[in-house]
Amino acid sequence: MRRGERHGPAPRVRGRRTGRHGRGARGRRAGRSGRVVRGCGTHPRGCAIPRRRVRRRPGKGRTVTSGGASEQLAQAAEILVPLAEEATVRIHGAEAGNPLLGSGFFVAPNWVLTCAHVARAEGEVTLVGAPRKEVRVGYRDQLLAGVVEWAQPSGPGGIPGQSQGNDPGYGAGSAGQGGAARGPGGWAAPDLALIRLVDPLEHPCVWLTERTAKGYTTNPVAYFGWLPLGGVLMPYSGRCVISGQLGVGGGGLLRLSNDDEMPQGLSGGPVVDLVRGEVIGVLQARRAERDGGLAVSIQQLRLLPTAENPADDLYHRVMTAHDLYHADHHRFLLNRDFYGWTEAHSEIGAAAGRALTPGRRTALLGLLAQLPPPSGARALGDVVTEVRGGAGQGFAVAPRAWRDGLGLLYDLRRGSELEAVLRYAVLAATAEHPRPAQESHERELWEWAQSTAADQGLSMLFRNSLIGERMSRLRARHAVVPPQAGLEPGLRARGEAQLEIIPRGWEPDRFDWRVTVSPESGEVDCVHEDFRGTAVADLPARLAAPLAEAFRRCDEPGYVAALQLAVPGSLMAFAADTWRLDPDGGTLGALRPVVVRRTDPPPDTDPAVAEERLSRWRTLHRLQPAAEVLDCEDSQAQPLPEDAELRARPREMLPVLCRSSGAAPEALHRLLRCGYSVALWRRDPIEPRQVCSDLHRGVPQAVLAARTAAGLPAQLASLRAAVAEGVPETFWSGALALLYDDPTRPLPGTDELLETP
């Protein structure tokens, strides 16, 4: 489906007692990216895929407060059901025919949550890092490639030690056509799986609850999925209530009443609390030969295996992406037609009696997501206990992320919920983290707590206590943090490989080229050159052997030489890092650092400018660079500062360009003219309405990991390798490029005669 197309009317199958849904939220259109395995206008087995209707947002300012409880519930469903439907997907097998396996739903950008018995029909435990199973994700009229990153059923049978009373057996809803149930007791928790899309895609995401399962009530819920009906794959939604919970603290399974039908095929779909407006479970099983069933509590996701490196922890990766998605789309209203879960929470009155409005809650979760994760479940539990004034009891699964701890502060039996939430935010911002937090992120969270306390009219005594506690914790933390090492200058010069691309003015689609190496001595050797004009499509094959020879001359044990791509300003978007020199290998930029240099830089006619450029270069290689986005603010394009202002910026500033892809040659020329030899910029253009906060967050984190400018080429190569592996958190860096024009080692002059060996 092309961007901008509207879907035709979508037939909807409802349960027997499901009311009529009216207008609702408009889902985000799918982007053009994403690996479409095959069109899904017609299911391989003859099931047509109806297109969903693009809905308009509800009337602005409407609040669900009038009428009785049933009318309020109907209005809440009118708002929430379309949001959940737009994020519910089909899970298909990757084998021939792509059979329907069940349902799932987007929980974060490029992440789908479903049941393990849907994603791994054979039922084995799949640990993080194990061989991955390929599946297909049906979204609208597309089948997208996906891999099962984690799936863990405990096997058939109920929760150990728990009785299901006199109810008949539950069968895991095997969603294939005519799939058989798994036998009495269904599949025990967690019975969950996470599927990662192979390529980036624009899509909506549901809102996952951060509350503990003990907070679930008998609120009405809606559940969603897909099923084949008369040769057509149909979206389905039904209604029921939570009639009970199984497991200690209700952290295992949710019993769903028999108010509505649950056909086979819905396993893996979301269960939405219609009063709170959040997904609280994953539909798992239906009762044999009668209505009702079971859902897995969202808290079971916390059973994901922990990782030795916190940055690799899958639970934190997914939850962070979830919270940042909602925070970004609430903060940056670039699309007037966008209507999300935070807006829905306001309209249905989900925050009635709560300490935070829906907007403040979304903002807080986004700010907490920017922090590194807690140093462990025990450390997080200690923070929650200190804020609550006592330990929580009866929780089935310990909290793992900052959002989980926040959920334990709702409905306190004593004390002020708002004061507890604000103090929790301060303790989170000043806690010991497994890796250093960005100072700006901690400061943003503190400023949020300050402004919220003032806006809500909390006492001066309490606000002063927050200030005092923050300062004392920061002093204690700084007292034990060792100084950073490894930022000293004096890095040994290494061999470098250069590829110069020379345009042919009379043949715009053909180029001359030269491959050279610069050993540690600084002398330049020409490996090979060709001035006969090579077509763009033929460059990777023609350059494979010369570049391989250049790399052999420069690489050392433990050191992979960077490739310096030397191009004129008009070719700054030349994407040599995407080449595959070996058809069976990875992209060049994922295998080694690739940086860009200008063959036509501004002339250094003024000795003061040349000295300033050299001074900035040395400062960036001695101190931690401070990344600053110059052309974008709040996801809106901004003009670059004037030259005088650029020259006055601190020497440790690292300029970043987010929305200047079209004007990159001129923008980078100005930066070079003002003394900047290192800069990051987004090479590909983005839509004016596209939220770009992922780049604004990702670049400072990458620069922090690089420590100095000397580490930026390797850090960018690491990001490109992660993009090639399909790591969703790095997709923001897919088109990132690095200007790295070393003034101490100039490129060989184009007029200089080089000897070919």
TrEMBL record:
Which intervals carry biased composition (Basic residues)? Answer: 13-32
| Region ranges (Disordered) | 1-46, 154-184
SUPFAM superfamilies, per this entry?
A: Trypsin-like serine proteases (SSF50494)
Bias (Low complexity): 33-46
UniProt cross-references to Pfam families, sorted A to Z: Trypsin_2 (PF13365), VMAP-C (PF20028)
Specify the signal sequence span. none
Skewed-composition ranges (Gly residues): 168-184
**Residue stretches making up the vWA-MoxR associated protein C-terminal domain:** 509-743
Give start-end ranges for the coiled-coil region(s).
none
Please, which domain of life does this record's source organism belong to?
Answer: Bacteria
Q: What protein is this chain from? A: vWA-MoxR associated protein C-terminal domain-containing protein
Species in which this protein is naturally found:
Actinacidiphila reveromycinica
